[in-house]
Amino acid sequence: MQKIVYHLWYDKEAEEAATFYTSIFPESDIMETNMIQDTPSGDVAEVSFKLWGQEFTAISAGPYFSFNPSISFMVNFDPARDKHAKDKLDEVWDKLVDGGTVLMPLDTYPFSDRYGWIQDKYGLSWQLILTNPEGKERPTILPSLMFVGDHCGKAEEAAQMYLSVFKDSRHGLLARYPAGMEPDQEGSVMFSDFMLENQWFAAMDSAQDHSFSFNEAISFMVYCDSQEELDDYWTKLSAVPEAEQCGWLKDRYSVSWQIVPRELEVLMKQASQEKRHQINQAILQMKKLDIQKIRTVYNNPSRA
Q1: CA nearest 58: which of 287, 192, 195, 218?
Q2: Which pTM value belongs to this model?
């Protein structure tokens, strides 16, 4: 079961976008759709889905956050696993480019025979790459973090911090900018990847003049099996007290995380609509989530 789930925030398009994405990628399907009532954004739709085996959750919760390229999703098409990888890459690109914006054209680059970077019609960014058959195998889809602005030059430091926080973690590739690639500083991270909880992430620095930075449009939901585990992640990751709300936090690099008890998912599936509402109202009063308080709301007949 995936430990870290990728969470996407839409204005109104979560269900539409999930349907679109699951129609594009293989081994993809919508798992569940729920309505969460009386949130600060009103009634919001939440949809859970898989893309090429990777778990995502999306909500339609108002026009408060917008996607930008600071976090994108790399999609690896590996000729060693699929002799039609190049054709499939082109097919996915053609669907994503419809109504989208090309950030880097689909072309040959020094690091890949076939690569392109695009924002789709919903604003979500994708990097499609034909991987080197001789390289080590990577998952088909993984999130990529681009450290820009005040956080430029912090990609390596951030990766080290995440590796110290999460279990089942290890370094992967690391490529540094050479001299002569100004404004990017020699020795900063041109590309890296690393494993957290058996899931791969990528990171890079970019000193280009970007008008965006990390925000809550994309966050990472970390499912915990106990209050102790939840407390530990919260203590190690949270660095912006004013961002703490309903299990959400921001780390020292402004990346957003949600630290969630897995038991909450079980209780919500078992609960009646009214009980779900009561649990959600209780969560709205919390910063760090409290499993015992959530259990109390679920089990107390007076709150039914």
Answers
A1: 218
A2: 0.94
Please give the full DSSP string across the chain, using - where no structure is assigned.
--SEEEEEEESS-HHHHHHHHHHHSSS-EEEEEEEEEEETTEEEEEEEEEETTEEEEEEE--TT----TTEEEEEEE-TTT-TTHHHHHHHHHHHHHTT-EEEEEEEEETTEEEEEEEE-TTS-EEEEEE--TTSPP--SEEEEEEE-GGGTT-HHHHHHHHHHHSSS-EEEEEEE--TT-TTSPTTSEEEEEEEETTEEEEEEE--S--S----TTEEEEEEESSHHHHHHHHHHH---GGG-BTTEEE-TT--EEEEEEHHHHHHHHHS-HHHHHHHHHHHHT-SS--HHHHHHHHH-GGG-
Q: How many CB atoms lie within 10 A of CB 278?
A: 17
Spatial distance between the Cα atoms of 236 and 230, rounded to a whole number of angstroms:
10
Residue that the structure tokens 């996607």 belong to = 67
Backbone angles phi, psi at 211, to 5 degrees: -100, 15
**pLDDT tens-digit profile of 112-163?**
999 999 999 999 999 999 997 666 777 899 999 999 999 999 999 999 999 9
pLDDT, tens only, 60-115:
999 999 999 999 999 999 998 889 999 999 999 999 999 999 999 999 999 899 99
Which pLDDT score, from 0 to 100, does residue 304 have? 40
Q: Which residue has the tokens 């080590």?
A: 136
Residue bearing tokens 């054209």: 105
Whether 155 contacts 189, CB under 8 Å: yes
pLDDT in tens, 163-189: 999 999 999 999 999 999 999 999 999
Contact 173, 195 (CB under 8 A): no
- Which residues share a beta bridge with 250? 256
